[in-house]
Amino acid sequence: RMPRQTVRMPHGQIAAIASHGHTLDVFTVSGSRLISLQTFAELEAMLQGDERFLPCNRGALVNMDEALKLDSESILMANGMHFPLRQRNRLELINRFTEYQLKRMIRR
């Protein structure tokens, strides 16, 4: 849901989502930024079953297919954006990212 229109896109076209107050920035794989009026909880619930999406910090979801690397502080995305890793459950997030990347390598 975008201001004054509805946009449908495959989950794989979403690179990352960041919450800003009462709106969401939806960054696409193609490099565009869409502004959504949905709540973060609504969008997170829609993506809940998709293992590609990692809630790396409060109000931020990243598509791990679009992540270049993860260090102990942040995730670097293919589009150059950085998303910080939350302190709580940091090791769990790192493990989930590593496992996902290993599964991707095996599938290739």
Summarize this entry quickly.
By secondary structure, this protein is of the alpha+beta class. It is built from two helices and eight strands.
Strand content: 25-35%
Helix fraction? 10-25%
Instruction: Please report the number of helical segments.
Output: 2
- What number is the mean pLDDT? 91
Rg, please? 14 Å
Question: Cα distance, first to last residue?
Answer: 34 Å
Unreliable stretches covering 5 or more consecutive residues:
none
Describe the structure.
It is a single chain. With 108 residues, the protein is an alpha+beta fold. The chain is 24% helix and 34% strand. The protein is built from two helices and eight strands. Strands 3-2-1-5-4 form a five-stranded antiparallel sheet, with helices on both faces. The longest helix has 18 residues, at 90-107. The relative contact order is 0.16.
Keywords, please?
108 residues; alpha+beta; five-stranded antiparallel beta sheet; three-stranded antiparallel beta sheet; 2 helices; 24% helix; 34% strand
Indicate the topology.
Layout: E1 14-20, E2 23-28, E3 33-36, H1 40-47, E4 53-57, E5 60-63, E6 67-70, E7 74-77, E8 82-84, H2 90-107
Antiparallel strand pairs: 1-2, 1-5, 2-3, 4-5, 6-7, 7-8
